């Protein structure tokens, strides 16, 4: 048989069939390249080729969705992957009615569609997906007003802002989420038209214990998630990313996507074996981006990756980290992750 293409390998895994080996990939932010579609496309494609990944997850700057609704940032000051927040349109829950639909193919969205087109032109037919935060995640960014510039302060600001808004103005939260979801649904469809294989739909640390209750996520998260996902149902490769520890896995386990990515190692989430009994989706993950990949040796990465391959049965599975890797993740460890699938008995 002729050699499998990257696209064929991923498609087989998504169908639950046995390919020549398990697909593998990892992703990261690129700073300052993320400020330009041209430079980010080049950096993304270089990373894809350097490690010979089977598919590409596009990592635009994490604030682009909030920028569409008026948040402003200082890109000369980053803490990890977040630029410093300057100002935003919402200062209280009573102002949520100011969040209305915005042009889904203009402004910052036009910039991202150019990025997709550039990557499509250079990726040689392999699958790639554009990152899209859920409507509730975008609203969290719009409600966060960190007093100091740090990732921790920004994330805490999202939690505090959402908590206050849900408590004080739940009707306004629904109004804002409807506007955001309407815009994101049309934009998501436009990314497919521009050449992406699908979207990487990220629930950013909200559907988990200690943040929102399961009942609250079912009310304020899930309906708007499904509205966006409905717009891309014809795409061949839609992924759901469930971010953070102690996540509400069962809340999203039946979402209309092809695969689910989550932290299956060391974060009080379902293991690969447990997840197999709780979702019909292809599983994606198996390696701890904060553990072996970041701090271990290549041998330790290989061992963890091989354990994941064994636990998955190498079927309906794509080997990846549970989230994006840090900017300073050792390259040798990423090469070890790629090497791990070559030990598959199907290789």
Report on the structure:
The chain is an alpha/beta fold and 347 residues long. The protein is built from 14 helices and nine strands. The protein has helices spanning 6-15, 37-50, 64-68, 107-122, 135-143, 151-168, 170-193, 214-220, 222-230, 249-252, 272-276, 292-295, 298-312, 331-340, and strands at 56-57, 72-79, 82-87, 128-133, 198-203, 239-242, 259-262, 282-287, 317-321. It has a seven-stranded parallel sheet. A two-stranded antiparallel sheet has the order 2-3. α2 packs parallel to α4 (107-122), α5 packs across α7 (170-193) and α6 packs across α7. The mean pLDDT is 94.
Shape: globular
Strand count, sense and closure of the main sheet? Answer: 7 strands, parallel
**Radius of gyration, taken over Cα atoms and rounded to an integer in Å:** 19 Å
Coarse structural class: alpha/beta
Main-sheet strand order equals 1-4-5-6-7-8-9
Oligomeric status of the shown chains?
single chain
Total number of helical segments? Answer: 14
Q: Which bin fits the share of residues in helices? A: 40-55%
Order of helices and strands: HHEHEEHEHHHEHHEHEHEHHEH
């Amino acid at each position: 048989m002729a050699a499998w293409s990257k696209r064929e390998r991923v498609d087989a895994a998504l169908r639950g069939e046995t390919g020549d080996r398990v697909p593998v990939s990892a992703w990261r932010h690129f700073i300052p390249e993320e400020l330009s579609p041209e430079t980010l496309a080049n950096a993304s494609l270089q990373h894809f080729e350097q490690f010979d990944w089977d598919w590409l997850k596009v990592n635009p700057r994490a604030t682009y969705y909030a920028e569409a609704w008026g948040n402003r940032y200082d890109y000369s000051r980053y803490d990890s992957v977040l630029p410093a927040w300057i100002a935003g349109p919402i200062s209280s829950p009573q102002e949520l009615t100011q969040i209305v639909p915005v042009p889904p193919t203009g402004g910052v969205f036009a910039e991202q569609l150019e990025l997709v087109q550039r990557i499509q032109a250079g990726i040689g037919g392999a699958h790639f997906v554009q990152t899209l935060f859920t409507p509730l995640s975008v609203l969290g960014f719009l409600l966060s007003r960190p007093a100091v510039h740090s990732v921790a302060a920004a994330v805490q600001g999202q939690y505090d802002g959402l908590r206050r808004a849900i408590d004080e103005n739940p009707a306004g939260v629904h109004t804002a989420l409807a506007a955001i979801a309407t815009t994101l649904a049309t934009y998501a469809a436009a990314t497919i038209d521009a050449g992406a294989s699908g979207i990487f739909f990220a629930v950013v640390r909200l559907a988990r214990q200690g943040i929102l209750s399961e009942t609250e996520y079912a009310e304020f998260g899930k309906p708007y998630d499904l509205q966006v996902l409905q717009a891309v149902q014809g795409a061949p490769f839609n992924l759901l990313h469930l971010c953070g520890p102690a996540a509400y896995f069962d809340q999203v386990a039946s979402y209309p996507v092809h695969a689910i990515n989550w932290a299956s190692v060391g974060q009080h989430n379902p293991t690969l074996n447990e997840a197999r009994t709780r979702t019909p989706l292809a599983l994606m993950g198996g390696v701890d981006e904060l553990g072996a990949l970041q701090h271990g040796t290549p041998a330790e990465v290989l061992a963890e990756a091989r354990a994941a391959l064994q636990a998955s049965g190498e079927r309906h599975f794509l080997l990846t980290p549970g989230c994006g890797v840090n900017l300073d993740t050792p390259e040798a460890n990423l090469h070890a992750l790629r090497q791990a699938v070559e030990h598959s008995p199907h290789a």
